[in-house]
Structure formats: structure tokens, C-alpha cells
């Protein structure tokens, strides 16, 4: 069974969103599934420059050129996402938006958007990959605190043949210790339920 992918999108190691992902992972593993973590802060990749090279077939990103002196690992991350049966993106909210590193990775998905019509023909009839997100904010108020991030994720995932299937939105959380036992238990249970779905799917496969 392939690993579920948990993407840590915070620039800070061990922060609230990392802790949230940890509780989710505990549940997935308890259900008998396996998890791979990928922290964006540990990967080297450049931001999209808007060069438009990917607009035309074969929709190749100029930044992925292997001849460059500086390695670019965006394709490695997209490959991890492609082979995972389930993905969770855990991220903090900064100024009502996703953090810069995460947004830079999202922008690198432009080549998939450019090729979306071709991909729809390739994956016709297949259900979209389920994707989850856990978004955390120190701010307690704001009716649309998470709305912009969710909209960004929705359209990032669409050309990747993936769909947002669940979310946890946590407000007023500045430090990991601010997570209540009830919230931690809910995150673990959330992971367990999705882990059970994964294990049952692969056990039922011929």
C-alpha cells in the first residue's frame, strides 16, 4: 500500500501546524496505514517566474532543467503527491493567506493547469485523489479567515486530478500547547478514519 502524504507547509519546524499533522499521522498509523512526511522547508525549489514556457506542449517547466547549477526539487514533491493515495496539507495562515513557501510551490503547479485538458482526457473516469487540509491561525476572529486559502487550494488541486475532501480550521492557536486535548483527539480520530479508508480500499483490491 502506498504511503499517505503529509505535507508540512510551515517555515517553522515543530510549530502548531506541524503538531496538528503529527496528531493526524498518529491516527493514520494506528489504523494500519503508512505515512510519508514532506516538509516544504526542507526542499529546494524556485518560485514561478511567469516565463510562459509551460503554456505550450509539452508543458515543461523551465525551472526543472537538470542542467542548472542549483537543484530544483519541485518535481520531486509533485511526484510524491501523484503516487500518494491520500494527502494532507498542514499550514499556518499568515495575513489571511497561505505562507510564502507553500504559495511558491502552488505556483509551480502552473504547468499542470496549462496541461489540464490533456490530463482530463488521460484520467477520464477516475475519481479525484482525496486531499485534506489543516489550517491554523493565531487570530481568533475573522469571518473569512480561511476562505482565501481554501479557494487557492481548490484551484491548485483541480488540474492535479485531486479534490479537497475534508478540513480542520483552528483559530486562536499561537503555540502547540494551545491545542486542547479535545482538538488533539479529534485530529487523531480524523486520521484514523482516513487511515481505515485506505487500508480497507487496498485490502479489497484484487
Automatic annotation (TrEMBL):
Coiled coil: none annotated. The chain crosses the membrane at residues 77-98. The keyword Metal-binding does not apply. GO terms for molecular function: oxidoreductase activity. Keywords: Flavoprotein, FMN, Membrane, Transmembrane, Transmembrane helix. The keyword Membrane applies. It comes from the Bacteria. Residues 5-141 form the NADPH-dependent FMN reductase-like domain. InterPro entries: Flavoprotein-like_sf, FMN_Rdtase-like_dom, ISF_SsuE-like. Signal peptide: none annotated. This is Uncharacterized iron-sulfur flavoprotein.
Amino acid at each position: 500500500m502506498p504511503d499517505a502524504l503529509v505535507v508540512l507547509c510551515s517555515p517553522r519546524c515543530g510549530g502548531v501546524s506541524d503538531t496538528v499533522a503529527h496528531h493526524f499521522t498518529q491516527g493514520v498509523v494506528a489504523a494500519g496505514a503508512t505515512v510519508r512526511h514532506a516538509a516544504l522547508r526542507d526542499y529546494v525549489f524556485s518560485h514561478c517566474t511567469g516565463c510562459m514556457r509551460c503554456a505550450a506542449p509539452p508543458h515543461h517547466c523551465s525551472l526543472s532543467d537538470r542542467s542548472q547549477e542549483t537543484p530544483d526539487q519541485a518535481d520531486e514533491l509533485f511526484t510524491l503527491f501523484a503516487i500518494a493515495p491520500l494527502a494532507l496539507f498542514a499550514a499556518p495562515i499568515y495575513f489571511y493567506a497561505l505562507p510564502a513557501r507553500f504559495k511558491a510551490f502552488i505556483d509551480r503547479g502552473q504547468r499542470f493547469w496549462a496541461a489540464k485538458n490533456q490530463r482530463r482526457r488521460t484520467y477520464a473516469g477516475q475519481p479525484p485523489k482525496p486531499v485534506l487540509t489543516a489550517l491554523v491561525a493565531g487570530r481568533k476572529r475573522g469571518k473569512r479567515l480561511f476562505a482565501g486559502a481554501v479557494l487557492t487550494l481548490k484551484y491548485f488541486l483541480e488540474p492535479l486530478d485531486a479534490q479537497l475532501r475534508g478540513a480542520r480550521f483552528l483559530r486562536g492557536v499561537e503555540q502547540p500547547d494551545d491545542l486542547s486535548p479535545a482538538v488533539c483527539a479529534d485530529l487523531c480520530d480524523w486520521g484514523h478514519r482516513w487511515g481505515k479508508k485506505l487500508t480497507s480500499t487496498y485490502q479489497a483490491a484484487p
